[in-house]
Amino acid sequence: xxxxxxxxxxxxxxLAVTMAAGLWHMPSALAFWKAEDFAPxxxxxxxxxxxxxxxxxxxxxxxxxxxxxxxxGAVVPVSVSTxxxxxxxxxxxxEKNPIPLAxxxxxSPMLDASVSTRxxxxxxxxxxxxxxxxxxxxxxxxxxxxxxxxxxx
Length: 153
What we know:
alpha+beta, 6-stranded mixed β-sheet, 36% strand, 3-stranded antiparallel β-sheet, 153 residues
């Protein structure tokens, strides 16, 4: 029984020394999105990075359920659903947040195009839901009044 323990300790020590010497490193998990996609900036700049050279069409086929008045900007419940076909992704943007892109859901065509989450909102602003389909980019938006800020105050 002690042979197994000794082998384990020897192999673990050898791995630690190899990693410390820089000869071997753990592969890092790389995200598909770059840091600049979530960088602070104006809404227009974020939209240009998110959907470059594509026309965004307003539609009433997207249902955005969010309170008109949010008592606490730190936890604003929101749900988005759509009747559009071939939905690839759903993104939520908050106009006046320090980082406008709040979240992006990549969806399988086999799933229902419906998502729910909670957002942080810095102040009263428009919340924009972008739905990307194989036919184009569609959006709907709603103004939300925040009484207590959630992003830093």
